């Protein structure tokens, strides 16, 4: 478990660093420094530091009106990236001694059964290549995400 937590921290750190690089390229180093001061103040404040809470408060108070939305978006993106890393780690926590979950074994079991019934692998492959499957899930209204964002998040998870 500690190994997984360490990998999760590494993934979150990597994604946060990449986000920081992107913010620096898009908005400049000074803007990234403001975000970092807010982040560090919040982290210290959560640990009970009065200085950290003051740093957080003064950093947020010092933002210009046109910086408020980009800062909020930066933190929102970081949380999205952290959630991707967490979901990735949760999917990979499974103990190798456990049987594969249903969704991981259903297709191979179906293909084995079809082959056992006399269907030729070439025919099955040809038929499967013609399938067009699109999974559509509906989210809870508080968790709605555009399909394009979901696809981007999936691509990020695939890179982990």
TrEMBL record:
SUPFAM superfamilies the record matches: Phosphoenolpyruvate/pyruvate domain (SSF51621)
Superkingdom of source: Bacteria
Keyword NAD: no
Matches recorded under InterPro entries: PEP_COase, PEP_COase_Lys_AS, Pyrv/PenolPyrv_kinase-like_dom
PROSITE patterns hit by this protein: PEPCASE_1 (PS00781)
One Gene Ontology cellular component annotation held by this UniProt entry: cytosol
Substrates-to-products reaction catalysed: oxaloacetate + phosphate = phosphoenolpyruvate + hydrogencarbonate
PANTHER family reported for this sequence: PHOSPHOENOLPYRUVATE CARBOXYLASE
Biological role: Forms oxaloacetate, a four-carbon dicarboxylic acid source for the tricarboxylic acid cycle.
Protein name: Phosphoenolpyruvate carboxylase
Organism per entry: Pseudomonas syringae pv. actinidiae ICMP 18807
